[in-house]
RNA sequence: GCUCAAGUGGCGGAAUUGGUAGACGCGCUGGAUUCAAAAUCCAGUUCUUUCGAGAGUGUGGGUUCGAUUCCCACCUUGAGUACCA
């Protein structure tokens, strides 16, 4: 019987589907094992041979684990929301759901062809409302949570409200927006519900905010940082600009440290961990505040307090003086428009009490900067009344009545035009900088602000104004890309202002420069030219002093950036200290003196979560009085509405703005027509949709319980499957999917929803399969310029006669040679008149030829090429052959349609079988490595399968013997068991394929047909080539699927040898081998070897200096 | 620039703890079979060679009896990231 892959493979694929062979049970006596692939986005192009590589590897592992007695979960699904389906919808008007459905069907067919052991009963699709219902649910959970730094986890928002009610926000240690104002418990109670909502939004883990986003005009949507590559969009390479928009964001920054720490606990590839570590970008250093020292500064807006000052405020609020308490007792009961707040910040000033609605400030007198305060407050339109401590303590009633009077009869103070107000130097401007090198603070000789820094306009002196403004205009005109491309040019401008060095008190210049980025750190740096190359270059360029603070280091040519072993000099109390000590001491002193503190900074930004797209999850959100409201979980899913067009609306709203049924009826709890928005109980729904990574950030949990309609997965199932044991997918998701998924998992863990905080124990990145493109070399003829020929028309005729010519690859090695070959051919075949030969020039063009037209010897199917639909122009082309064949050139490139090097797995399955495809993909090379595909190589594994098949047959009859196997046969079997088992455990699938080949070659040579050998062999092969293994297994008389069989057990006793073929080396070089019994002692071996005639010949009479004998390994004779 | 990974025949790659470099497969060469081809089978295939042997894992050095493997410097390629203070 011939091995017929077509029949066998169809038969067993049908068997597996009908018997649900790979359906995983949610409980079992066996240990559990969860093998997961990154689910595919079902694109219209279908799969090429590169896609299934990871799936084949994971399938082999899953099948192996079943043989090893595990209850294996091996699911598959589709990441079916996404841009291409939407772009296609825009072009064709087809609903993305429809094209997605079609693409999924194609994918499923292609996957089924390869014989994967997926449990399809658990399939998920992110675009299925029953699935995204739970994506929406998780969004609500995030909205209802805040990050408590004290407990270092996410907590329910109600616990935060409780604290606000009791103590205000002074005691809260949370991850929140930077510009959060302080308020007391009483303030909280007095806030309107809208105000409360606004404040809570600053703490929620998903929040709405005006953020600078990456807007891609061509795609009409915002993009996340990981969706931008080299300043242009990852998809389509469109330019991206910065734009302020109101967007949902995810407070992933709250998890920065835990995302970093978690990497230590998971077995993921180091490069991937490195790239996440870089992306999170933790840097340890200090926050330092520099005061601005300026002759004339303009004030035109409120100044925010620094973090440290806000910290100090907390203390102040809690430690009120007796007089303060007495007066507050009187004022705090005022309600409504006359409500007072205590210790409130206005500008950089802290006022004792203020009634904001009446513009009245009440203060204790005797503050040192009273005059400045009065001038500033009045400029802001406030009235100020002041009392002394004594006045309050002696007659608080009188004081209160004066306050009441001031409320009722306010002094008319005109709010002065802000531009005109010139406030003299009150040291109110401060520049916060972040530095990783506080030890070099005495090396600071200037400061640089980003051109966009908010202080720039305020501190620039009149003299420098024109220059600074010109510089800002110039930089803002440059695109992000230009700025990135041109990092060499040094540019900047002096503001004219000076800062005060916090330690030395010296005046230092403040510059602006575009090498400082507005969106990293504080957008300002303290420049230490001697210790940072960019600062150094900047200082050199603008002739700023470069003080040297390193002992014994030459900085005349470049900055000294090394840390280890560096000793600090010229730095007051830091002089003479080593880098590490100086760093610690500098931070200690800053904290003591109150102008700096140790801080850890992260590069990781909060993730923008809104997309102006149609084909994504709708938010479960409606807007009431401009504030977002969550729809109760019980009403989910909020299903994507139908729209007429998938483009943004004419007034620039996202595509959902086209929907006519997109309003939330809060009374009837359902989505209703927009006509009903006039109703008081009907509100508009969110028009943005969620980004692609929303659905993929938790799908691995859904597989555990995919049809549950009560919960996103049941507690029992989550507890049973816990986490993914093996996850296989591409490394391109390092800073996208794999980071977001870890973030959500940690959040869900905090909330007690999932039992583990890392979703995948082990991860492997499969390498890309590249295409091997084929090139043909086309000759183009044209007439030399300026030939001086009289008759152009006749030259046209000459060219007319010359056909398109292709030259076989090895006929030329240079362009000149190419020209000669072509000309000779044209002359020989009378395509060219010898009289014109010198006037014609020939150039070479390499053209991609379809790889399907090229055989294993790189020979082109010339007729096939001429008749190929893509090569219509070459029907009458001439081919210059070598040895009767046209040889193509080869080059390894990424697989892509335009290079005609894409190989479809369906064709391979058709011609060679799924088992061959699986074996070959594994045989190409190590799983993690990128490697080129060359279809010709498949004949090796294909003939291996035929040889394997033959072992079980005697001519056409299936025939195995029950006789005892020989020692050699057992040795081959057990050697193979050991190697294959080790290889699978180490994911070294390529080497086990060669092990199978060796085993089959050996057993063929031994003419082995023993059941005791061939039965275990079928099991060994079955994870790799499951169809042929099932067929052989059933021929061997088994009724159950081979997947239920136990993996053969290795017995070392079969490999025990009595003799060893020793390599005999001279000075480490192997010269010959010698067969010796293994039970000899070192001395005996040495004696035999030294007496051997070959040894004597090698030594040429010399006496060896030393003889190394390692029994069982090697003998080395040192001469 | 920085970080990481990798450099082995004509090609994909093997050598898992330092111990016979090039397993296995493709391709190539020769042979058998065939009217012929495909398929199949057999033999050979790192380079040099005076046929004795010698050299050889990107380059140069080091450790070692012995290095593809460990250490140092450099070169090349690929990936990621990029004025990150």
Strand element count: 43
pLDDT averaged over residues:
86
What is the CATH superfamily of the largest domain?
A: HUPs
Straight-line distance between termini:
61 Å
- Provide the gyration radius in Å: 39 Å
CATH class call of the largest domain = Alpha Beta
Unreliable spans: 296-307, 415-426
Strand count, sense and barrel status of the largest sheet are:
7 strands, mixed
- Strand percentage lies at 15-25%
* Class from secondary-structure proportions: alpha+beta
The backbone outline, from C-alpha atoms, is: globular
CATH architecture classification of the largest domain:
3-Layer(aba) Sandwich
Percent helix among the residues?
A: 25-40%
Q: Could you say how many structural domains there are in total?
A: 7
CATH topology title of the largest domain: Rossmann fold
Helix count, DSSP H or I runs of 4 or more residues? 36
Describe the protein's architecture and organization.
This protein is α+β, with helices and mostly antiparallel strands and 1119 residues long. The chain folds into 7 domains: 28-138 and 694-765, 3-Layer(aba) Sandwich (Rossmann fold), CATH 3.40.50; 302-417, VSR Endonuclease (Endonuclease, Chain A); 430-601, Alpha-Beta Complex (Isoleucyl-tRNA Synthetase, domain 2), CATH 3.90.740; 618-689, no CATH class; 769-893, no CATH class; 912-1054, Isoleucyl-tRNA Synthetase, Domain 1 (Orthogonal Bundle); 1059-1118, Ubiquitin-like (UB roll), CATH 3.10.20.590. It contains 36 helices and 43 strands. The strands form 12 sheets. Strands 11, 18, 19, 20, 21, 22 and 23 form a 7-stranded mixed β-sheet that branches. Strands 32, 33, 34, 35, 36 and 37 form a 6-stranded mixed β-sheet that branches. Strands 2-1-30-31 form a 4-stranded parallel β-sheet, covered by helices on one side. Strand 25 (621-624) and strand 26 form a beta hairpin. Helix 3 crosses helix 4, helix 29 (914-923) packs across helix 32 and helix 33 (1011-1021) runs antiparallel to helix 34 (1026-1035). The longest helix has 19 residues, at 967-985. The protein is globular, with a radius of gyration of 39 Å. The two termini are 61 Å apart. The model is unreliable at 296-307 and 415-426 (pLDDT under 50). It binds one RNA strand of 85 nucleotides through helix 10, strand 18, strand 22, helix 19 and helix 30.
